[in-house]
Design brief:
alpha/beta; Rossmann fold; Elongation Factor Tu (Ef-tu), domain 3; 2 domains; six-stranded antiparallel beta barrel; about 30% strand
Amino acid sequence: MQRWRGLEATPADLGRTVVTIGMYDGVHRGHQQLIGTAIARARAMRRPCLLLTFDPHPAEVVRPGSHPAILTAMDRKAELVAGLGVDAMCVLPFTPEFMRLPPETFTHTVLVEHLHAAQVVVGENFTYGHRAAGTVPTLTAEGRRFGFAVEGIALAEDSSDGGDVTISSTYIRACVAAGDMVSAARALGRPHRVDGVVVRGDRRGRDLGYPTANVESPPFTAIPADGVYAGHLVIRDPRGGASRERLPAAVSVGSNPTFQGSRRTVEAYVLDYEGDLYGEHVGVEFVERLRPMAAFADVEGLLAAMAKDVSDTRQILGM
């Protein structure tokens, strides 16, 4: 998949495209349906499917201090959309100047002049331009003027629990914040994952017989509620972020209250693994919450709980 940042980096030989636009944070099941439609239209027209997204999140520019928790880092997003079949991904810096573009200027400058849109596929609630004044109907009208088609796709819903829940990044963030990883995974179509780099911690787990990979993630990452989880540690290629190896793990999120810790960390104990993970680019997948974080009266109580956590992880992962 081709990938570039900024309109000025658009390949000169791009040609006409089918464009889909959005933050696509999480690349959840609703996003997958929308992207799948765009890919189908592109294949039918024998043109590349191009995904247009933004960095940083527009909310932080429109309302500073309101940056939402991020479900997928940019490298992970690129990996996921490439896996769906997207041919190219353009990341536009979302700046105060860009925010103030009138809808018609966004359409002409971005979609027509640079991305050469033959068709645009977006969600039915898509908005664009200054003060979100542009909508699917206005984009459709502009498309007739500039020579591209527009298709608005209905939002996906999940009715597996007996009620209709609109699948959205906001809903998934709420599930993650509550530690409900089963519901988050159902909406995502896969376990929620936190990406980062393994850094040196206080090495207390090693002293206890449970050496952990202390994963430092980027700012604004959507970290699950404090607790212990069954999951996996995914080792990534540092050059492009692609996943290389997936290992079973019991994962702790919290500030280590038994030892009066104050810094919130994500630590993964990889089952049946011997090796040095320091400096590795990894992803931590959260499959199911085992228990909330707790402070134990003594080390023996903590060790007994950790042994049960590992046993429960094996059972949940089918090991």
